[in-house]
Specification:
It is a single chain. By secondary structure, the chain is α+β, with helices and mostly antiparallel strands. It folds into 3 domains: 90 residues, 2-Layer Sandwich (Ribosomal Protein S5, domain 2), CATH 3.30.230; 44 residues, no CATH class; 138 residues, no CATH class. The chain has 8 helices and 6 strands; from the N terminus they run βββαββααβααααα. The protein has a 4-stranded mixed beta sheet. A two-stranded antiparallel ribbon has the order 5-6. A hairpin with a 2-residue loop joins strand 1 and strand 2. Helix 4 runs antiparallel to helix 6 and helix 7 runs antiparallel to helix 8. It is elongated and about 125 Å long. The N and C termini lie close together (11 Å). The mean pLDDT is 86.
């Protein structure tokens, strides 16, 4: 079965005065691209998060973790270097402006970087709560990907059926097309050579035409690629890259059929096959 690259999952929990929420979104991209957004106090856990979700193999995966202290346990520290730098700068400004008043404490305290306010974090306790939430959200993403994959698979199978229908029509027309061309070649030789027709020469020309324009081999290979494609999408964990390769091979055979056989009926079916294949490949762009 195939899976889509589009999914969403969300999980949250409040435990021991701490609320944690995890949101995972996945989108369509050619390669695997994982982005993790964490509160600074638990940024050290990014590596564990990536290891925990290493089963993602393709697509843009955005992981967002939010935290909130219910009990407001805070740790406040003073950055003495920042406070000193601000004080010196404010005093120089006062001298320049001719202000003899001392620097107010409240003004100094409001400057950026003077105070560092951090929540107290027990990283291991956070991870114990966070990991199950990650797995729960990831499971939701996987479930959504599988459901969308079922819809993709249905549409892809419809396009394969359309291509197979064109193959059947072209195969049914091939004997009549060959007979028509043989008749036309013989008539042309007769008009040009009159009574001096060389039957052997006519047969050689017909054989040469068949060698240049016979499309049976391409139709057989195209049918084989479709069979391989069907087998692949039935497998667990079918991969978009392999399916895309098979679609490329199908496109090559269709193009060759179009270039070797110029009859109007065949050309129309080639157009139909190209249209179905393009729709199929559009769906493959969102397959994991």
């Amino acid at each position: 079965m195939i899976s889509s690259m589009t999914g969403f999952g969300y999980a949250e929990k409040e435990d021991s005065g701490l609320w944690i929420a995890v949101e995972i979104k996945s989108f369509n991209t050619r390669y695997l691209d994982i982005a993790v957004s964490l509160p600074p106090s638990i940024s050290i856990l990014e590596g564990r998060i990536r290891e925990c979700l290493d089963f993602f193999s393709r697509g843009r995966v955005e992981i967002s973790v939010r935290m909130k202290d219910i009990e407001n346990r805070l740790s406040i520290e003073i950055d003495w270097n920042a406070a000193s730098a601000w004080k010196n700068s404010l005093e120089k400004l006062a001298v320049f402006l001719g202000d003899s008043q001392s620097t107010p404490l409240n003004l100094l305290a409001n400057q950026d970087g003077v105070f560092k306010v951090e929540g107290e974090r027990d990283v291991e306790a956070c991870w114990a709560t966070l990991k199950p939430l990650l797995l729960s959200a990831a499971a939701q993403v996987a479930d959504m990907r599988e459901r969308e994959g079922e819809q993709l698979s249905k549409d892809i199978k419809d396009q394969l059926i359309a291509i197979e229908g064109s193959i059947e029509k072209i195969s049914a027309w091939s004997p009549a097309i060959r007979s028509e061309v043989e008749t036309r070649l013989k008539r042309g030789f007769s008009e040009i050579l009159g009574n001096h027709i060389d039957e052997q020469r006519i047969l050689m020309e017909i054989a040469a035409w068949i060698a240049r324009t016979d499309i049976n081999e391409e139709l057989v290979r195209l049918a084989a690629h479709i069979l391989a494609f069907r087998r692949e999408i039935r497998l667990a964990g079918a991969k978009g890259k392999k399916l895309d390769f098979l679609a490329q091979e199908m496109g090559r055979e269709i193009n060759t059929v179009g270039s070797k056989c110029s009859q109007a009926e065949v050309s129309m079916e080639v157009v139909n096959m190209k249209d179905a294949l393009e729709k199929l490949r559009e769906q493959l762009r969102n397959v994991v």
